[in-house]
């Protein structure tokens, strides 16, 4: 009897333990499900209260909106390199090319602010990150704005602003100005070159290495009596000499085709070839008489506009004498843009500060302009005869 009771008791005890374990496991599963459900509800509530900012990080730069409106005309000119009237002219001319539509994510950057960003980079040659913080935009946006601005200037304004004198009246005005100011007859403009430092190109980098040991592109220009650029060839490798660059330019082909009046010509240094429409100094390897020395003196004085124009160009736009982190094609557009801006400033009478020259002198120590190699062989007989005639007139 006691054996039967013991067996029944043991069976009941095992049965109860089995049911209790099953209950505990089920209860544990229910608790875990409840906790997971509570975590999901909490996450959903947090997502509802968080403002999404995946399009752009918030910025605090209010330089253009709050500081620039307080600038005087002189302060505005010193910071952006151009006067307010010239600035507004750019806004009007480039509005169609630079305007952007607003999106659902954010408002577009106004055209005037875009131009201000690009001018700040060109004028002060600041790195993109500091300009971005200044204006409250992204670093990549600064790079994009500079690229779009230079492209728009080259597309819309370059052919209008940088023009070779075409009409007889225009040519006579320049000739008379050179004759009255520098006492050199028949001069339609002065020819010169300048090296612009660049990063080492990925292709044919050795051809861009100039004699001073840095990579550069060459800017070939014609300058008139008002220190404005009337022609420019940009982008030839810095390893080429002045004569090679000139012979490959569109200007050379144009002057070979164009029948200029006999008394009209350009002037240049001894590194250029002598032609009937391009007067150069007498060779230095030959003994010169007083008549030839007087001719060389007047010709050197008449090339002063080139030196002044290059000085103002570099002083106003520092990006041209600091090696900039831009690709070759973009750098060519940047140089052309600076030429247009220079001509606009000179035409509108925007003041040039002497302090800008001091900065240029300091930077010249880093990127020294290569010496010009004298061209002693390439001279035409017509040019030789005309140079002698001019030497007699000037004596």
Automatic annotation (TrEMBL):
<dbReference type="GO" id="GO:0046872">
    <property type="term" value="F:metal ion binding"/>
</dbReference>
<comment type="similarity">
    <text>Belongs to the HARBI1 family.</text>
</comment>
<keyword id="KW-0539">Nucleus</keyword>
<dbReference type="GO" id="GO:0004518">
    <property type="term" value="F:nuclease activity"/>
</dbReference>
<keyword id="KW-0378">Hydrolase</keyword>
<dbReference type="GO" id="GO:0005634">
    <property type="term" value="C:nucleus"/>
</dbReference>
<feature type="domain" description="DDE Tnp4">
    <location>
        <begin position="193"/>
        <end position="343"/>
    </location>
</feature>
<dbReference type="Pfam" id="PF13359">
    <property type="entry name" value="DDE_Tnp_4"/>
</dbReference>
<dbReference type="GO" id="GO:0016787">
    <property type="term" value="F:hydrolase activity"/>
</dbReference>
<keyword id="KW-0479">Metal-binding</keyword>
<dbReference type="InterPro" id="IPR027806">
    <property type="entry name" value="HARBI1_dom"/>
</dbReference>
<keyword id="KW-0540">Nuclease</keyword>
<dbReference type="InterPro" id="IPR045249">
    <property type="entry name" value="HARBI1-like"/>
</dbReference>
<protein>
    <submittedName>
        <fullName>Putative nuclease HARBI1</fullName>
    </submittedName>
</protein>
């Amino acid at each position: 009897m006691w054996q039967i009771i013991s067996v029944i008791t043991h069976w009941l005890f095992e049965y109860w333990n089995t049911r209790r374990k099953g209950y505990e496991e089920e209860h544990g599963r229910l608790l875990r499900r409840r906790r997971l459900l509570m975590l999901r509800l909490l996450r959903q509530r947090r997502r509802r209260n968080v403002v999404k900012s995946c399009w752009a990080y918030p910025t605090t730069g209010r330089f253009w909106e709050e500081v620039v409106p307080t600038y005087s005309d002189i302060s505005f000119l010193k910071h952006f390199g151009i006067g307010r009237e010239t600035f507004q002219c750019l806004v009007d001319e480039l509005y169609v090319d630079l305007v952007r539509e607003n999106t659902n994510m954010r408002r577009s950057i106004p055209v005037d602010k875009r131009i201000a960003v690009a001018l700040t980079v060109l004028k002060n040659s600041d790195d993109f990150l500091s300009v971005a913080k200044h204006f409250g935009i992204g670093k990549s946006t600064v790079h994009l704005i500079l690229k779009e601005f230079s492209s728009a200037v080259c597309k819309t304004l370059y052919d209008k602003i940088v023009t070779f004198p075409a009409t007889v009246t225009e040519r006579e005005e320049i000739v008379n100005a050179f004759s009255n100011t520098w006492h050199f007859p028949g001069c339609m403009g002065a020819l010169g070159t300048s090296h612009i430092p660049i990063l080492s190109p990925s292709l044919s980098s050795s051809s861009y290495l100039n004699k001073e040991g840095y990579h550069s592109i060459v800017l070939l220009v014609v300058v008139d009596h008002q220190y404005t650029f009337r022609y420019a060839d940009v982008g030839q490798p810095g390893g080429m000499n002045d004569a090679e660059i000139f012979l490959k330019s569109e200007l050379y082909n144009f002057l070979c085709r164009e029948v200029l009046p006999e008394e009209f010509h350009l002037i240049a240094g001894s590194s250029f070839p002598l032609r009937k429409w391009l007067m150069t100094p007498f060779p230095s390897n030959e003994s010169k008489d007083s008549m030839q020395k007087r001719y060389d003196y007047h010709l050197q004085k008449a090339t002063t506009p080139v030196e002044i124009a290059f000085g103002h160009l570099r002083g106003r736009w520092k990006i041209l004498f600091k090696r900039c982190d831009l690709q070759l094609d973009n750098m060519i557009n940047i140089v052309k843009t600076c030429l247009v801006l220079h001509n606009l400033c000179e035409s509108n009478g925007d003041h040039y500060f002497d302090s800008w020259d001091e900065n240029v002198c300091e930077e010249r120590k880093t990127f020294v302009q290569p010496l010009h190699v004298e061209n002693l062989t390439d001279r035409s007989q017509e040019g030789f005869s005309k140079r002698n005639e001019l030497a007699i007139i000037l004596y």
